[in-house]
Amino acid sequence: MNIESIKLAMDLLYRKYLIPMILLDENGTWLHPESSWQTKKPISHYLEATDEQSVTLYHFGKYMLGCFQFQLEGQRFYLMVGPCGVIGTPENSCVFLGHEYHYNIHYSKEDKYSFEEYIQLVHTLFANQPLTQEQLRWHYQTEPGNRSIQTDFNLEANLYDRRVHESTFGSYHFELRYLDYIKRNEPEKVAWVFKKMKETYSVSLSPFELEGLKLKFSAFVAVVTRMSIDEGVPVNQAFGLSDSLIQGLIYIHTADECLRYIKEATYRFMELLHSYPFAQKSLLVKTIVNYIDGHLYEKITIDDLADITQKHKTHLCSQFKKEMDKTIHNYIQEKKIAEAKHLLLFTDHSYEKISTLLAFSSQSHFIQSFKKITGTTPKEFKNIHYAHALS
């Protein structure tokens, strides 16, 4: 493949998927598509973050962006993919490199996983090399003043006391198969299920297809939320994701968007479920884990856990260590530091404020614990992972 073939492929892909791409040479000079635009914002920030072994991906809340480098005829080139809108967000335009893009005119909207698949397609085509999941490096970045409801950024901030009404899928056997695929973490079978989605749901729940799909989505969220809790996901985490996803429904305007959003929600629950692999743990350990995860902003003691489990301290400590391969104290510290990472990236809280919120004895104790677990100080972590989107 030569440079002209690359340009032709870019044009064909854009017509098909409506996801913009920019080809640049090793000096960052814009090669394709031809444009009279002069970038009002520096593009080097994105190019410098790339390497030959991975693809750098950015999630700005309302749009996504990818960037990678590849070799062609002995020369290095860069390809920027995006902006690509995010399903479930209300915005119909975005500003990138100082220019305004309009939804359905200049760009389309996809879920995170569809965007990853598109990146893998383009990388395989242009770099002549397939990507592994480990080579996709995501960076989540916020925009000052952006108050739109976004699933990733609002997960921890939602209320967890929503009452989920009893409701199931239209097909009982479909539901069983679908939930089994989620439990077994089989995304390829989930993709197959979505091809059969309209055939399976033949019962009309609404005079309008979109409203009917939204009702089915709510039923799906109710069922999968309960299943996730039964499989060991902390109650707060499960209902937090549930609330965030349901909030996003108000920004879905077509049946096609709704189906893609349901697929996105499925993958989100799969990620959540398999990040809490406690399905085989005892009820005692699940109870301890759920209590810890629901009280991260409080001081948690072994005495507290003994009271809520009605077990002797020695027994519960021994059983937890046996099943989790770590002490209760270490688990508490790891969970608090994980929460601290979220606060560092998605709030403006100071280190002192975060240490107080998470009930550390002092700011120095917080910093010491953070470095012990992550290998970096809170300041170093934030410098590495946090950046503001271009306005």
From TrEMBL:
Domain of life: Bacteria
Keyword Oxidoreductase part of the UniProt annotation: no
Domain HTH araC/xylS-type: 286-384
Pfam families reported in the protein's UniProt record: HTH_18
Keyword terms of this UniProt record: DNA-binding, Transcription, Transcription regulation
InterPro entries registered for this protein in UniProt: Homeodomain-like_sf, HTH_AraC
GO MF terms, alphabetically ordered: DNA-binding transcription factor activity; sequence-specific DNA binding
Stored PANTHER family: ARAC-FAMILY TRANSCRIPTIONAL REGULATOR (PTHR43280), HTH-TYPE TRANSCRIPTIONAL REGULATOR EXSA (PTHR43280:SF2)
Protein name as it appears in the record: Helix-turn-helix transcriptional regulator
Organism, as annotated: Enterococcus gallinarum
